[in-house]
Design a protein that fits this description.
By secondary structure, the chain is of the alpha/beta class. The chain is built from 14 helices and 18 strands. Bound molecules: nicotinamide-adenine-dinucleotide (NAD) and pentanal (PTL).
Length: 424
Amino acid sequence: MERSRVLLEAARIIRERSEELATMETINNGKSIFEARVDIEISWQTLEYYAGLAGSMAGQHVQLPGGSFGYTRREPLGVCVGIGAWNYPFQIACWKSGPALASGNAMVYKPSPFTPITVVLLAEIFREAGAPPGLFNVVQGGASTGEFLSKHPDVAKISFTGSVPTGSKIMEMASKGIKPVTLELGGKSPLIIFSDSDLENAVNGAMMANFLTQGQVCCNGTRVFVQSNILQKFTEEVVKKVKKIKIGDPLLEDTRMGPLINRPQLEKVFAFIKGAKEQGAKVLTGGEPYIPEDQKLKAGFYMTPCVLGDCKDDMTCVKEEIFGPVMSILPFDTEEEVLERANNSTYGLAAGVFTRDIQRAHRVVASLQAGMCFINNYNVSPVELPFGGYKKSGFGRENGQVTIEYYSQLKTVCVEMGKVESVF
Ligand SMILES: NC(=O)c1ccc[n+]([C@@H]2O[C@H](COP(=O)([O-])OP(=O)(O)OC[C@H]3O[C@@H](n4cnc5c(N)ncnc54)[C@H](O)[C@@H]3O)[C@@H](O)[C@H]2O)c1
Ligand SMILES: CCCCC=O
């Protein structure tokens, strides 16, 4: 209950300071203030949710023959390391620290060097909320700092959010110390639109699946499979909407797309678009540098959101994670065919299906190889629901009750009430 009170107080402070924190997050990352506000809201909800679970951590009592019994204790792991990506800096730190602290651990958190700011504010908030000094610590740095933390003998667990190659290195380092890891990695998720969908809903779902945070979202549904008989109509509607996305100063109220995180990321996205064109895809809109009129923004890393048509499953833009505002549209004919193509990926983070046929919706998600599936929506992530991947998108979960298990260990105590029956 003591932990719960600290988390609840931290949630209250975040809520009270939400406008300031959202502004800082926009400056930190470049996402629109509109989206940053949502991130801050999800963040305090996460701390509230785990505050609620903190007091309910308990073991089991098991009766054994002869009056003997056993019981289990759910105990903390110790010092947990959190290593975060730059796309949701504050939210990722809350997704990790909420369950870690609720379970009784301490945390050392390393944000991405591209977004070092807001997690420092989170550390100050935890202190102000009553967390003892040293319970939640921030260490700044890049790969070598992450490696130092991952190899450190005093560290009991690593929770990592980032790319597959780095996740693989972290797992290797953790294996040397036999440390548990949670890996929240990348994706190339499918979004399947059946022709019986509510078209407006499906178009809105595809927008949500591709263009939040300048397309730099791990679970984005970037492979948009559209049933052939609605391909033309769907594509026209999507392109119309994408053209209307307001790009510019992320601190302005009506902006919906700010700059990408940095120059290399912008160039990487342009290289994917160039490669897509060379492989035969057609740019239906966007994919160009965007120069805002405002003088002070001219050197920003802006681009116009892009929709690619005439895509094929074996194109690089369809197979690899771009991590930018680029949607690939792929026609399909049958359910069986689309399932096979949707699952034909080394990733398995998320997937979505739009249909009015409820039986089909459940049948399809049951066959999709993805940890986070959406029916008739996309990219909503309530804290009550576990989030995480299949296949190379990682393992372990964030959010939901189950995450307590990833931040704790189970001790079994066997109690003998009779005499020891020695076999010797
Ligand atoms: N599944 C999820 O929940 C989720 C959420 C956000 C982002 N992501 C993924 O993250 C990727 C983009 O983020 P990124 O570019 O920051 O990823 P990244 O792997 O380059 O870096 C992530 C973090 O790891 C650190 N790091 C880098 N090399 C390291 C090493 N050798 N040892 C230890 N730490 C090291 C970085 O400094 C950073 O803090 C995308 O692939 C995206 O899909 C996944
Ligand atoms: C914390 C939000 C994770 C979404 C993926 O990038």
